RNA sequence: UCCCGAGUAGCGCAGCGGUAGCGCAGGUGACUGUUAAUCACUUGGUCGUAGGUUCGAAUCCUACCUCGGGAGCCA
């Protein structure tokens, strides 16, 4: 039985065999101890009563402190004291593994997230991280449910890619070369033909282009996997390795894309509110007392939708003093996005139709020739949580945009084939999983919502 | 990468030119159907690293390292 079940009032009267870790132990001279047992199945631990008539009470139970792992067999009874409905009257307690209280890094007291990052192998045992990672799991389940229930096909796109540029950021090189002896061409360049794949390869920065190939065959698809960016970003919302969800939908325009993104986020938030109530209540109390209210508000209202041009007009007319002045054509700064989401509208905002010059080559050109059918979903505090677009489905325009972006269309022959043979309007977006978890949980640093964060100068564990 | 800020006991912090302190954790004892239990006593630190200024540096200066916050890049 898991602790979660042992806590239910209807479990009273049942016999239980529980496994878990000791959170705290309180001894009573009256001849028994309270053991707070947690197994990660839920936020709370179950209170175990260990009486001194247990054969190993003196020499084992009184020595098992915080962090020790135990197996407990006992009867679930109604608790006579406040604080819990049930407790376990132990009949047998086996110590599976001691944790020396003098050196065990976790304490009963709250510990800084900064320090917990340095013991990332133990931090899942804390209340906060347990809650965060149960919620992260619920979000992942919700993501799959959302797409599967609408007959999207889950496609696994490659992690190693030979596209030398997918339009997004610095990439990690993948090679089997000995770095102190890299084969060179006579011209002095690197001879990638001798490398493992016979060409230069990198870790993927996005599965989108590959997902498009499946969308133009299976209609509705999504990817969900790790993504890598070698940017030297040192912020609370960037990682070098993160997880991204990328739906791609054929026969869909930007409006359909926005509708999908909005119902997608609402579904995730609703599922978390419904299925992680205890964990959310805990985080709402300890981390950020606005998260539950914010999520409920979002689920019940419509996202604000406006064009980039309208947003620029609003920002100019706002009278706010921005560090970066606003004018049509600039990329919006964090301060501008925050004004829109946190001050002006106080809810998620979808911005569309950005200037072509600041967006990726694959986004569909509007008839005005100046803007593209892009959309960014912005949320308070986090900023961009989803970035998407309707894709350029016109062969000539796409080739033109590639050249404009300094890309060689020949290297993307397979991508262009999708427009050459039976092209269709299609659209999609990318959701940064960790940013979503951050937004939902209120955790301020993205490194605290992924089990083992990878960031510049940081790849421990 | 840029701009700030911080590195002092296992953890959280104070001290900011004159012989290193508090809370929590750990240890010992008392007390108790307890809830981050409580109370008393107690162990524990070449003050991030390397230089420099000074009679004297945790404290002032320089460089470096690491961490945090903000910015850029983005998800």
Describe what this molecule looks like in 3D:
The structure is a single chain. The protein is α+β, with helices and mostly antiparallel strands. It folds into 2 domains: 3-97, Beta Barrel (OB fold (Dihydrolipoamide Acetyltransferase, E2P)); 127-169 and 205-448, 2-Layer Sandwich (BirA Bifunctional Protein, domain 2). Helix content is 29%, strand content 24%. It has an 8-stranded mixed β-sheet with strand order 6-10-11-16-15-14-13-12. Strands 1-2-3-5-4 form a 5-stranded mixed β-barrel. It has a 3-stranded antiparallel β-sheet with strand order 7-9-8, with no helix packed on it. Helix 3 (127-148) crosses helix 5 (254-275) and helix 5 (254-275) crosses helix 7. The protein is elongated. The structure holds one RNA strand of 75 nucleotides.
